[in-house]
């Protein structure tokens, strides 16, 4: 396999290397998650698999995802409160929800919010 890889053009070798790194990182991350490892363990396995720079980018992405998850969870909770408020008409509920959305989400995020609402309403677990 190594010989076959070495006979390929350098661009293809690099792509295969990246795919292998991604697959290794995915497997290691899944194993880490299953054993409920520490953040330090996650950082170490990432550094070993993809290097320090990529690890820093992954950690920044983790933070963005955490912030998004908190934001969407708060919205879903507010949405449930509005929808369960029997003192409001359907039109008033929709107006309040639209206002909450406009105050908390940008145009790009609103597309995601609609998807999360649909998933929530269908009983599908929201991605974390």
Relevant terms:
mainly alpha, 128 residues, 6 helices
Q: Report on the biggest sheet.
A: none
Radius of gyration: 21 Å
First-residue to last-residue Cα separation: 37 Å
Number of strands: 0
Tally of alpha and pi helices: 6
Low-confidence stretches: none
**SSE succession:** HHHHHH
Helix content range of the residues, please?
Answer: over 70%
Sheet-strand content, in percent, reads under 5%
Q: Name the average pLDDT.
A: 91
Overall, the morphology is: elongated
SSE-based structural type: mainly alpha
Question: How do the helices and strands line up, and which of them pair or pack?
Answer:
Layout: H1 2-6, H2 10-34, H3 39-50, H4 52-83, H5 90-104, H6 107-121
Helix pairs in contact: 2-3, 3-4, 4-5
């Amino acid at each position: 396999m190594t010989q076959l890889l070495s006979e390929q053009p350098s661009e293809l070798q690099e792509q295969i290397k990246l795919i292998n790194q991604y697959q290794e990182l995915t497997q290691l991350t899944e194993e880490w998650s299953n054993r409920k490892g520490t953040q330090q363990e996650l950082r170490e396995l990432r550094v070993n698999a993809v290097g320090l720079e990529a690890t820093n980018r992954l950690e920044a992405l983790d933070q963005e995802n955490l912030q998004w998850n908190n934001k969407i969870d708060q919205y879903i909770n507010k949405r449930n409160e509005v929808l369960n408020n029997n003192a409001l008409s359907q039109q008033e509920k929709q107006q309040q929800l639209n206002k909450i959305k406009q105050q908390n989400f940008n145009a790009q995020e609103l597309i995601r919010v609609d998807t999360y609402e649909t998933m929530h309403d269908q009983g599908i677990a929201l991605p974390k």
